[in-house]
Design goal:
The protein is 36% helix and 17% strand. By secondary structure, it is of the alpha/beta class. It has a domain of 70 residues: Nucleotidyltransferase, domain 5. Strands 3-2-1-4-5 form a 5-stranded mixed β-sheet, covered by helices on one side. The N and C termini lie far apart (95 Å).
Length: 133
Protein backbone atom coordinates (compact mmCIF):
# COMPACT_ATOMS: atom_id res chain seq x y z
CA UNK A 1 0.00 0.00 0.00
CA UNK A 2 1.26 3.40 -0.93
CA UNK A 3 0.44 6.47 1.08
CA UNK A 4 0.22 9.85 -0.53
CA UNK A 5 1.40 12.72 1.56
CA UNK A 6 1.27 15.52 -0.97
CA UNK A 7 5.03 16.04 -0.99
CA UNK A 8 5.78 13.60 -3.78
CA UNK A 9 5.65 16.16 -6.59
CA UNK A 10 7.47 18.93 -4.72
CA UNK A 11 11.08 19.75 -5.49
CA UNK A 12 13.73 20.16 -2.82
CA UNK A 13 14.36 23.77 -1.83
CA UNK A 14 16.64 25.63 0.52
CA UNK A 15 15.07 27.75 3.21
CA UNK A 16 16.70 31.18 2.85
CA UNK A 17 15.41 32.70 6.05
CA UNK A 18 17.42 30.30 8.18
CA UNK A 19 20.55 30.89 6.06
CA UNK A 20 20.19 34.66 6.37
CA UNK A 21 19.90 34.36 10.15
CA UNK A 22 23.04 32.20 10.33
CA UNK A 23 24.93 34.58 8.01
CA UNK A 24 24.06 37.56 10.21
CA UNK A 25 25.12 35.72 13.36
CA UNK A 26 28.48 34.86 11.77
CA UNK A 27 28.87 38.48 10.60
CA UNK A 28 28.17 39.77 14.11
CA UNK A 29 30.73 37.33 15.54
CA UNK A 30 33.40 38.56 13.10
CA UNK A 31 32.64 42.24 13.74
CA UNK A 32 32.73 41.73 17.50
CA UNK A 33 35.99 39.82 17.21
CA UNK A 34 37.57 42.56 15.08
CA UNK A 35 36.48 45.28 17.51
CA UNK A 36 37.83 43.41 20.52
CA UNK A 37 41.17 42.89 18.77
CA UNK A 38 41.62 46.58 17.95
CA UNK A 39 40.79 47.90 21.41
CA UNK A 40 43.81 48.80 23.50
CA UNK A 41 43.88 47.06 26.84
CA UNK A 42 46.47 49.46 28.32
CA UNK A 43 49.30 47.08 29.16
CA UNK A 44 51.90 48.37 31.55
CA UNK A 45 55.36 48.27 29.99
CA UNK A 46 58.77 49.38 31.16
CA UNK A 47 60.40 51.58 28.57
CA UNK A 48 64.13 51.32 27.94
CA UNK A 49 66.49 54.01 29.17
CA UNK A 50 68.70 55.71 26.60
CA UNK A 51 72.45 55.83 27.08
CA UNK A 52 72.88 59.43 25.90
CA UNK A 53 70.93 62.43 24.79
CA UNK A 54 70.74 62.70 20.96
CA UNK A 55 72.09 66.27 21.24
CA UNK A 56 74.98 65.27 23.51
CA UNK A 57 77.49 66.44 20.87
CA UNK A 58 76.16 69.99 21.10
CA UNK A 59 77.63 72.45 23.56
CA UNK A 60 75.25 73.27 26.40
CA UNK A 61 75.05 76.64 28.11
CA UNK A 62 73.65 76.13 31.61
CA UNK A 63 71.60 78.85 33.27
CA UNK A 64 70.71 78.22 36.91
CA UNK A 65 67.98 80.04 38.81
CA UNK A 66 68.41 80.03 42.62
CA UNK A 67 65.64 80.04 45.19
CA UNK A 68 66.18 83.78 45.66
CA UNK A 69 65.88 84.29 41.83
CA UNK A 70 69.62 84.87 41.30
CA UNK A 71 70.80 83.85 37.83
CA UNK A 72 73.99 81.87 37.28
CA UNK A 73 75.48 81.41 33.81
CA UNK A 74 77.98 78.54 33.72
CA UNK A 75 78.58 78.88 37.50
CA UNK A 76 79.03 82.68 37.37
CA UNK A 77 76.45 85.01 38.89
CA UNK A 78 75.06 87.58 36.47
CA UNK A 79 72.04 89.79 35.95
CA UNK A 80 69.18 88.95 33.59
CA UNK A 81 70.29 91.08 30.60
CA UNK A 82 73.91 89.90 30.70
CA UNK A 83 72.81 86.29 31.05
CA UNK A 84 70.49 86.52 28.04
CA UNK A 85 73.11 88.38 25.97
CA UNK A 86 75.84 85.78 26.66
CA UNK A 87 73.53 82.82 26.06
CA UNK A 88 72.25 84.31 22.80
CA UNK A 89 75.80 85.00 21.62
CA UNK A 90 76.78 81.39 22.33
CA UNK A 91 73.68 79.95 20.66
CA UNK A 92 73.77 82.10 17.48
CA UNK A 93 75.49 79.52 15.29
CA UNK A 94 72.97 76.83 16.14
CA UNK A 95 75.68 74.60 17.63
CA UNK A 96 74.68 75.35 21.22
CA UNK A 97 71.71 74.55 23.43
CA UNK A 98 70.55 76.46 26.52
CA UNK A 99 69.59 74.44 29.59
CA UNK A 100 67.67 76.20 32.38
CA UNK A 101 67.91 74.69 35.87
CA UNK A 102 65.39 76.30 38.17
CA UNK A 103 65.17 75.83 41.91
CA UNK A 104 61.81 74.73 43.26
CA UNK A 105 61.65 77.79 45.49
CA UNK A 106 62.41 80.26 42.67
CA UNK A 107 59.72 82.62 41.47
CA UNK A 108 57.84 81.45 38.40
CA UNK A 109 57.85 84.95 36.95
CA UNK A 110 61.65 85.08 36.84
CA UNK A 111 61.80 81.81 34.89
CA UNK A 112 59.10 82.91 32.45
CA UNK A 113 60.81 86.26 31.92
CA UNK A 114 64.13 84.51 31.27
CA UNK A 115 62.52 82.15 28.79
CA UNK A 116 60.74 84.94 26.91
CA UNK A 117 63.90 87.07 26.72
CA UNK A 118 65.87 84.09 25.38
CA UNK A 119 63.25 83.53 22.70
CA UNK A 120 63.28 87.23 21.77
CA UNK A 121 67.07 87.11 21.52
CA UNK A 122 66.82 84.35 18.92
CA UNK A 123 67.71 81.30 21.01
CA UNK A 124 65.85 78.39 19.42
CA UNK A 125 67.02 75.49 21.55
CA UNK A 126 65.95 76.00 25.17
CA UNK A 127 65.20 73.17 27.61
CA UNK A 128 64.39 72.88 31.29
CA UNK A 129 66.45 70.51 33.42
CA UNK A 130 64.40 68.20 35.64
CA UNK A 131 65.25 65.32 37.89
CA UNK A 132 63.70 61.88 37.80
CA UNK A 133 61.24 60.95 40.50
Amino acid sequence: MRLTTGYENRKARIELINLIDIAFIILIAFVYGAISLTMSKGLKVTLPVGAADPDSRRRIVRIALDSDSTLWLDKEACDLEACVRKAAAAARGGSCSVMISGDRGAELGAGIELLSLLKEAGVDSVAFEVRKR
